[in-house]
Every structure is written in structure tokens, then in C-alpha cells.
Amino acid sequence: MKFVKMQGTGNDFVVIDGRKEDLSGVNLSELGIKLCDRNFGIGADGLLIASPSSSADIKMRVINSDGSEAEMCGNGIRCFAKYIYESMENKKELISVETLSGIVIPTIIDYKGKAALVEVDMGVPKEKKKARVIKYDAVLVSMGNPHCVIFTDDLNKIDISSEGPAIENDKMFPNRTNVEFVQVSGKKEITVKVWERGSGETLACGTGACASVVAGVLTGRLERDVLVHLPGGNLDIELGEDEHVILRGPAETVFEGEIK
To answer: Residue 73 catalytic?
Structure first.
């Protein structure tokens, strides 16, 4: 099976092209666990599967490293869009992608036939509400997938390895949730640490960065155009006046190979 290893701000993925590989009869959950294992597999936060779509240019499925399937992935779709764009014979800079959370349309910023940068209209947040989660005041935001955003004055005081899974699996979230701890540096700048549902602590989360900005605007902490610092790099998030969330950031191909 041929694969491409990609990353977006350190959030890494194995991409399998189901248009070229025969995945019929393959248990994708088991495949995701196997390929994402960093000791016995390729190693990644998630597995991205490309397949034909009847409603868009292409379909993307996201399998987390624990075998669960995610509705959407912001860093993943940038990597996915870069892969699809660079494998197209007749390239187009707007690519419609079918996901479990609906059709998403990344925009490719081309440089010499390659996707130098990817901008994604993540749509309008499907849910925004304040809540009390365990010991924290939080903002719950759905970007097609669930997020629990918690603001803190000092990220260094957060033990994400214990707090993250406790919140992810809290009974308030029957389908579990992603968790973001956010420290505000100014009206246009934040730092975020992520506990990702199904993957654990990751270097970045695109939908998590979007949810953090939405929560910051909702609570009056942030303006609508924000630079988000994550352990793996920076993302630029804009919440438009039409409430659409725009995600901008890099996507890189790390290596290609085959696995038996």
C-alpha cells in the first residue's frame, strides 16, 4: 500500500489514496491504529482516506490514531487539499471536499505548481455556549466536531496529560470532546495547547484553533483576526462578519513510501 506522510503545524497524517488503493473489505479503524502507531507503524496523529464523491470533487475520511472517526480536521484538510491539488492533472485552486461535517472548500495558494499555502472556509460554528466543566468555566464550540475551550492566565500551570483526558471523557460529552487550553496575549494573539479527541496531546489542531478564536470573540477577549500560536507552529484565524471562520496555514509533505 502506497502512502504519503504529511504535516500541518506539526499535526501529522498518513494519506492513503483510495482511488488508487483497493480498500474494499479493509477495516479502516484497524488500519488507522496500525498505520498511526509510532513504534510499529508509520506514525501519525491520524489517517486521511481519499475516495470519490458524488457531491464534491473528492471525499475525505479522518481516522484518529485510536481508530475512531472524526467528522472534520482543520490541519488534516489542508494537508489533504495539498495532496489532491498536487496530484491533479487539471489543477484548480478551489477544491470541494466532502466530509462527515459537510462540504468544505479549501483554496490553494499556488507557487510553481505546488500548494504553498492552503486557506479553508470552515463554515459557521454550529454551536456556541458557555458551560461549567469539572472545575473550569468553558466555552463549548462545534466546528463540525466538538470543542471545549478553557481560558487560563498561565498555560504552564495546566497539566494537559491529566486534565485533557478527564475533560475529553466527561459525562457531559457522550461522544467525547476535543479540549483547548488558551492563554490570551492580546486582542489579536493567543497561545493554545490541545488535547485532541482520539489522539491525545498534539502539536496543533486546526478546528481547535478556530474554536478558540470563536470562544474568544464570544467572551469579548479577542477581535476577529487572530494569530494562534501552537506548539507545532502558527495559524491565522479570521472570524468574518458573516460568522464564517477562515483558517490559513501551511501544509507540508514529509515523505512517501509503501507499507505491507
So the answer is: yes
